[in-house]
DNA sequence: TCTTAAAAGATAGCGGTGTTATGTCATACT
DNA sequence: AGTATGACATAACACCGCTATCTTTTAAGA
């Protein structure tokens, strides 16, 4: 009348091993057989716990969203909301560079071995934007940005930084237009485009650079 | 002393069939066996002509770059360089939406069944930016953009539009921040960020919208 | 024109993938 | 204590990219 309980340790081990393989060796290293072997179990474990490889990938995607949320949570609110906004951009990039193989699965149009995001998955991703939306609101309140719909302002920042990070991960950004150089120009342009003055935007982005280097440590390079 | 010549018709047929499968059914439909079967030949043809599946994918990527180049070539040079710049952004997006499965392989960090871009491949992609670089120069000459390095200005536009297109293809842009709405806001923000006034930027982007709808026809929706 | 070398292409196989059918066994409730 | 039920192991299926092997075709040289 009562079944055998599944081992939660096995479940966690599968996710951890999958994440490690994805991180260290890339998407091609992900296979039910290899993960099961490293976990000391059989491929069936992947199906009982996750319903298949897609379910396991989905679990790693959710872990990726949690990491992005944590990264955003480390951004402190200061009296310079524009510098804060720039810092969110840096934090977003930092998370992507720390998880270079996971990021394209989360936000790229990419399908990994048939895996495809569901609308619910994407909603988890969009949820992380809320911090940026609030920050955009503070920029408008402080008269640094012109009056606008905060969601759209946040989206513009997201699109711009996502584009940079995406092409950076694809090795498309080379000298003299390196990702570092593009990021600074991109952030300043975003702030000016949102309504800030060139002088104030340049200053706040520079402030955020110093603050980010101090609080977060040097950005991890791949 | 002379070998049998390979049939160029077979080669073209393989590329065409591969492109059709990728376009209609997505990356999972691409397989040597299926392509060979539809071409009425064997899987070996893929290896004699392209050295493997990767070579065939590379051929399709180059075809994608040619299409982007052709799309850019249709952008006419007018006396409003800022409107021209916006039109390049629309053309870029149009090409991506017309080839939704090919685009992420060309510019996404994505690897399709182990396929990875070479530095030479990426150089072909970057080459298409030259039109935009020239256009940025005209914007600066016309005093619409502030003095800046034209390559960096072009990169900022590329990154921003790529980010939009990339997330649009990933179905991340939904009401009320649809890709259409984001594009208009993004383009205006870009022009202002590059130095244009809010008034002039809004006008030129609107001009480019009308021109694009007229010259290019309605944008293809997926 | 005939010979022949060399590459094209067909066939079959290898090792790999995700997934599933089947069988065994541990477990928690009646 | 007995039993039903789901976790897990094993093995197989259909597919993948790729390659070794073989046959066939072709065009250059004699």
Fraction in helix of chain A: 55-70%
Oligomer: homodimer
Helix-strand category of chain A: mainly alpha
Q: What is the strand content of chain A?
A: under 5%
Number of strands of chain A: 0
Biggest β-sheet strands, sense, barrel of chain A: none
N-to-C series of helices and strands of chain A: HHHHHHHHHHH
- On the 0 to 100 scale, the average pLDDT of chain A is 93
**Most extensive contact:** A-B, 50 and 50 residues
Low-confidence stretches of chain A at least 5 residues in length (pLDDT < 50)?
none
Describe the global form of chain A: elongated
Number of helices of chain A: 11
**CA-atom Rg of chain A in angstroms:** 20 Å
Question: What is the distance, rounded to the nearest whole angstrom, between the alpha carbons of the first and last residues of chain A?
Answer: 53 Å
Mind sketching the topology for me?
The structure is a homodimer of 222-residue chains.
Chain A lengths: L7 H18 L6 H8 L4 H7 L2 H21 L7 H18 L3 H6 L11 H9 L2 H12 L8 H20 L9 H16 L3 H19 L6
Helix pairs in contact in A: 1-2, 1-4, 3-4, 4-5, 5-8, 5-9, 5-10, 5-11, 8-9, 9-10, 10-11
Chain A binds a DNA duplex (30 and 30 nucleotides) through helix 3.
Description:
The structure is a homodimer of 222-residue chains. Chain A is an all-alpha fold and 222 residues long. Chain A is built from eleven helices and no strands. In chain A, helix 1 (8-25) crosses helix 2 (32-39), helix 3 (44-50) crosses helix 4 (53-73) and helix 5 packs antiparallel against helix 10 (179-194). The interface between A and B is large, with 50 and 50 residues. Chain A binds a DNA duplex (30 and 30 nucleotides) through residues 1-7, 10, 31-33, 41-49, 52-54, 113-114.
């Amino acid at each position: 009348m009562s079944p055998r309980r599944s081992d939660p340790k096995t479940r966690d081990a599968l996710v951890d091993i999958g994440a490690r393989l994805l991180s260290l060796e890339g998407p091609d290293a992900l296979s039910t057989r290899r993960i099961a072997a490293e976990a000391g179990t059989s491929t069936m474990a992947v199906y009982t716990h996750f319903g298949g490889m897609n379910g396991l990938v989905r679990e790693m995607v959710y872990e990726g969203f949690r990491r992005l949320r944590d990264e955003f949570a480390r951004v402190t609110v200061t009296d310079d909301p524009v510098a804060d906004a720039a810092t969110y951009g840096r934090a977003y990039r930092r998370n992507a560079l720390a998880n270079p193989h996971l990021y394209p699965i989360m936000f790229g149009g990419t399908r990994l071995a048939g895996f495809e995001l569901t609308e619910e998955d994407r909603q988890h991703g969009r949820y992380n934007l809320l911090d940026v939306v609030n920050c955009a609101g503070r920029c408008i309140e402080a008269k640094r940005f012109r009056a606008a719909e905060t969601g759209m302002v946040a989206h513009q920042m997201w699109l711009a930084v996502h584009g940079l990070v995406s092409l950076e991960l694809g090795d498309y950004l080379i000298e003299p237009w390196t990702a570092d150089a593009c990021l600074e120009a991109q952030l300043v342009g975003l702030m000016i485009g949102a309504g800030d003055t060139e002088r104030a935007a340049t200053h706040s982005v520079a402030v955020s650079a110093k603050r980010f280097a101090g609080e977060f440590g040097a950005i991890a390079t791949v």
